[in-house]
Each structure stands twice: as structure tokens, then as C-alpha cells.
Amino acid sequence: MPRLVAIVVAHDSAEVLPACLAALAGQHVPAIVVDNASRDASAAVAEAAGARVIRNARNEGYGRANNRGVQAAETAEHVLIVNPDVILGPGAVDALLAAARSWPDAGLLAPRIVEPDGRFFFQARSLLAPYLTNPGGRLALPQGDACAPFLSGACLMMPRRLFLDLGGFDERIFLFYEDDDLCRRVADAGRALVHVHAAEALHGRGRSSAPERGRVFRTRWHQAWSRAYVSRKYGLPDPSLATLLTNLPKALLSALVLRRSGLERYGGSAAGALAFLRGRTALAREGLPG
Question: Where is the Glycosyltransferase 2-like domain (predicted)?
């Protein structure tokens, strides 16, 4: 019975999956790949690497797909949620499991995430952790294991039972801020969020899915919508109107000067904020049932 099972959500991720899955296999971690209707060979690549593959008929979004994977990992004590563009360094899994034994109150544990340029990614504050006073986001990088207000959803380890008891990722979110939301609920449940310094993971950032037309607009739409959604969920000020008023003039100017990149970027943010103000859901935008 595996103590740990990795969950990898793929969407047009064939280019990065081999390295991700090879790193997991090298540390004896079985993987479940939930394929969100990839148009490339992601599912075949995952099967060739020895992973169990669950095929979604359409792109269900990040949170829903992870929830399905965790449900399928029936024998696991812990689940390791891993983006397909993350490569776990040698010994990372052992370090995470050792930390879980050392810090039994931990609800979430995450490795030290290293960006492609060698930068150590650590978020000094979170939108949903107002109880931790760091309003300026002053960056003080941990030099060892440390509690944190937020752990990146790029790679998270969690007791499977706790994940299920908390309801998993919020399925009303299609993309973005689902990790902030989960971190907040873990903290509200009285469990610690632990950065595990001895576990290293290389994050390809932005390479999880192959480029596609309209991706920037769609990404910015969901960022704006999800930020507004989680703000309302936790009683924080709704940022939608400010987002709309900030981005709409920039989108109109970009259209006037025929600058497509600006139109996608600012237009996506404005459209996502407007959709939230009008009561439209992220799932409705993607044609998914609520």
C-alpha cells in the first residue's frame, strides 16, 4: 500500500510530463495523471511512463481535476499535488515525509521551489491571510523548515483524509486562487502550513500547458474573477470595480493602437471583473455545470 500518491493534472502537457513523472518514479512515488481533455499526447505519454491515467472528457479546471485524482488515490495516506512542469529533486520526497513525521500538526507541506533562473520562490504574504501582518510583503527567505501563510499550489503534500474532510479544492474556481483558498481553510482548521527547506523542486512556471491562441485573455479573465470570488468568500473588499476601472481604459487604448497583447491582457482582466459584477460564474464561462 503506497503511503504517498502523486496527483498530476495535465492539459496539453506532453512536453513537460516525462521529466515530472520520471522524477516521481525515481523516488518510488506512484502517479495518477488526470488529463483535462488534452489535444496533444499527454495521456499516452503518462501511460508510457507508468502512471495511472484518468481522462476527463473536457477541461474541468484545476481544482475539479485534482479532486478527482485524490478521490481515486484510495490507498494513500498522503497525496502529493504536483504541476506537470515541476521536477522534484533527489531526496525531496523523503524530506517531505520526514517533515510530516516531525511536524504531525502540519496540514500542508511544500518543498523549496526553485524557478528556472535559480530564484527561490517564496510568497511573503497571501490575500487570504490578513491575520499575518506583513502588509508590505517584505521578503525574508526561510533558511530551514518554517511555517508560512501560503504554500504554492505548484507542489503540495497533504494528508488525504484531511483534504477530503475539508472538501478538497473549491470546485467553483476554474483556475487561480484555489491554492490560497485551500491554505486558508487548512489554517482555519488549526493545522500548520510548513515550508520544507530540504525538499527542492524545480518549477518551470508557465510551461504546464502548450501555448494557445487566446490563452492570455482567458488567464487574465480567471485571475480577475477568482480574486473577486475568494475576496467575497472571506469577507474581504470586492476588488472587481477597481479592476474593471483600471484595466478597461488600457484595453480600449490597446485596441485603438492595434496592440493585441495589451488588448488580451487588460481586456481579459476587465472582462473577468465585469463578469463577476454581473453574477456570471467561472464555470458558466467554461460551459461546465455548477
Answer: 7-164
222 and 101 in a common domain? no
Are 116 and 206 contacting, i.e. CB atoms less than 8 angstroms apart?
Answer: no
Residue span of the structural domain in which 169 resides: 4-203
| Res. 140 pLDDT band, cuts 50 70 90 | confident
**HSE toward the beta carbon, residue 236, CA cutoff 13 A:** 16
Same-domain status, 115 and 248: no
The residue among 203, 227, 250 that closes a domain is 203
Shared-domain flag, residues 150 and 270:
no
Q: Do 57 and 107 fall within a single domain?
A: yes
Dump pLDDT digits (tens) for 191-235: 999 999 999 999 987 655 655 678 899 999 999 999 999 999 999
Q: Is 111 helix (H, G, I), strand (E, B) or coil?
A: strand
Asked whether residue 22 falls in the same domain as residue 145, the answer is yes
User: Residue 25 corresponds to which cell in the numbers above?
Assistant: 518514479
Q: How far apart are CA 65 and CA 54, in angstroms?
A: 9
Distances (CA, A) of 174 to 61, 170, 250: 5, 9, 25
The beta-strand segments (E) located in the chain are 4-10, 31-36, 52-56, 78-82, 86-88, 106-114, 120-121, 146-147, 155-159, 192-203
Structure confidence at residue 125 (pLDDT): 72
If residue 183 lies in a helix (H) or strand (E), which one and from where to where?
helix 178-188
Report the C-alpha gap between 43 and 203 in whole angstroms: 21
How many structural domains are present in the chain?
A: 2
